[in-house]
Amino acid sequence: MEKIRCTWCDKDDLYRAYHDNEWGKPVYKDETIFEFLVLESFQAGLSWYTILKKRENFKLAFDDFNYRKIAEYSSEKTEELMHNPGIIRNRLKILATVNNAKRFLEVQKEFGTFSEYIWSFVNGKPLINHPQTLKDVPATSEISDALAKDLKKRGFKFLGSTVVYAHMQATGMVNDHLVDCWVRNQ
To answer: What top-level branch of life does the organism fall under (predicted)?
Structure first.
């Protein structure tokens, strides 16, 4: 019998694997949280599928999402990234990634881990929504508004409320799997 999934992932095996194995599962490792911050910020204005298809290229281009290395990127390195056909070559997003790596380190210094900081917005545990259809899944929330505002105050770029909400979904801070999806109750 075929598993019932959220309908957004029906496109192909890549999408289904991401949905089944990652999306909505709580992430507490700073390295993975940063990876999703980078990917989500590049996704702004594009489809997630576009980013997912290029994920391995991003991983190679951005030193395995090592935020300590990225925070030290030179203008030569950012120029090199601008000529990398495997990623989204948007100068503002590339520069934002370098900036966000620096801000990420500042938050770690203040809170011990970035995970402690970001998960504090949901009191350390996933918010469980009960969407019946994709139309019931919001693009933002009061929490994503507050988190995006705080990130902006801290100097982060390309992380508005919609991007932040997508990040919250990807890292399991919010569970928006449809009520009949098999992953929901895992």
So the answer is: Bacteria
Note the pTM of the prediction, 2 decimals.
0.95
| Residues designated catalytic | 18, 40, 48
Is the pLDDT at 1 greater than 80? The verdict is no
Which has the closest alpha carbon to 177: 123, 133, 122, 139? 133
Which domains, and CATH codes, for the chain? 11-175 (1.10.340.30)
Cβ 153 vs Cβ 106: under 8 Å: no
Per-residue confidence band for 121, with pLDDT thresholds at 50, 70 and 90: very high
DSSP helix/strand/coil, 118: helix
Cβ neighbours around 28 below 10 Å, total: 15
Q: pLDDT tens for residues 83-120?
A: 999 999 999 999 999 999 999 999 999 999 999 999 99
25 and 175 Cβ atoms separated by less than 8 Å = no
Amino acid at 160: G
The dihedrals phi and psi of 145, each to the nearest 5 degrees, come to -60, -50
Phi-psi domain of 42 (left: phi exceeds 0; alpha: psi -120 through 50; beta: other)? alpha
